[in-house]
Amino acid sequence: MTATTSPILSVDRISALAERLRAVRRQTLELCKPLTPEDMMVQSCPEASPAKWHLAHTTWFFESFVLREFLAGYRVFNPDFAWLFNSYYESFSAFPEKRLRSSFSRPGLEEILRYREHVDTAMNRLFEQDPEEEALRRIELGANHEEQHQELLLTDILNAFFTNPLRPSYREHGSGIGDRKNRKQGSEAAHETQPLIFKQFEGGLREAGHVGSGFCFDNELPRHRVWLEPCALADRLVTCGEYAEFIADGGYRKPEFWLSAAWDAVKQNGWRAPLYWSDEGGEWNIFTLGGERPLKELAATPVSQVSFYEADAYARWAGRRLPTEFEWEAAAEGQPVEGNLLDSGEFAPVPSTALLQNRNAAKYGDCWVWTSSAYLGYPGFHPLAGTLGEYNGKFMSGQMVLRGGSCVTPARHIRATYRNFFAPETRWQFSGILLAK
Ligand SMILES: [Fe+2]
Q: Is 135 in contact with 126 (CB distance < 8 Å)?
């Protein structure tokens, strides 16, 4: 708390943060409701973690970085959890190899849920004790960290269910808010592909990066000047139907559309379609959190689960390019954060007009968009002090920036300056394609 903050404002701020944290913690458990304890053990690809691990690791964050330092007399739940549920913080403790997370049958799920309760109770105690400024900052970071893991939990479950021969559904298709709206408004129009319109931006000298007093990650700072040439960005994402044309045109067999490393990835991995597309007797099916669905039902829906390499190849095939992260930010700045995000309850991309009447505002949601920008520190970037400096900064090598959030990103988690990042071959996220020219 700073000397200039009035006590009443401080109390308001602390109670608002306490309520925010409780809501985030509840939401994580809510997302696990459709899962069995066995579902929560699966780790079906190297990028993924079991849902049970997500429950424990997000709790570990608060115990390790908040309670141990800021709550006098805090009793750790289990001393082994300090290293067991550490993800990658080298300066904190040793930790198990990521691929071993599915072998953590012990501690059992009930013990993990007790761990969550133990930490939540202690956090409530801390809130009653007028926590210091650094504690509040870390709690806010922890809430944002847990929201990131909510998204991962769903993308990991989608992969787990895709690899299960029964191809189970996480939830029934048609139970999202958008589906209900579509039924009210007449769903036919929502499933027609809207014409792709390019919106012109003038370019010039602009500023990029976070500004203001709200939360941001260290990688969104410092705000700095960028020069943009005039450009145009598509007003919606590339659809499954459009991507199917690329496949039908032999896109995956023509090296001229692919970067060298991308073509190696196509050959080595045998890629011939996005991650969850299966060829059933000449017809494509697409696996979603609502189960398997035919391409013809999803033709107007944004294509998802493509790598940067595929997004880039598609753009070349289409005679376009991917936007830079600063072009995207310039287009999104000042737009309200509206779109098909986690809060819509869709948990899958939807056709571009299904949720939004105002197409100018369709800058967020459905799929993260791959940009052509390498993930690097901004001029003057410095990571957070101490162990939490490992959160973002140490990954600034060999990754590409994604922008805009997806259908499983909580709405209050995303903003115009938000930088997601993954290696260019990564396909298990809700990552899609926005064209630029
Ligand atoms: Fe994490």
A: yes
What percent of the chain has a predicted confidence (pLDDT) above 90?
83
102-128 pLDDT, tens digit per residue, is: 999 999 999 999 999 999 999 999 999
For 93-144, what is the HEC assignment? CCCCCHHHHHHCCCCCHHHHHHHHHHHHHHHHHHHHCCCCHHHHHHHHHHHH
Query: How far is the centre of ligand 1, averaged over its atoms, from the C-alpha of 6 (Å)?
Result: 34
Q: Please tell me whether residue 283 adopts helix, strand or coil conformation.
A: strand
Structure confidence by residue, pLDDT tens digits, 297-327: 999 999 999 999 999 999 999 999 999 999 9
Distance CA 168, CA 162 (A): 8
Q: How far is the CA of 240 from the centre of ligand 1 (A)?
A: 31
Ligand 1 centroid–CA 85 distance in Å is 9
What's the 355 CA to ligand 1 centre distance in angstroms? 31
Question: Which residues, in sequence order, are CB contacts of 207 under 8 Å at separation 6+?
Answer: 223, 224, 225, 226
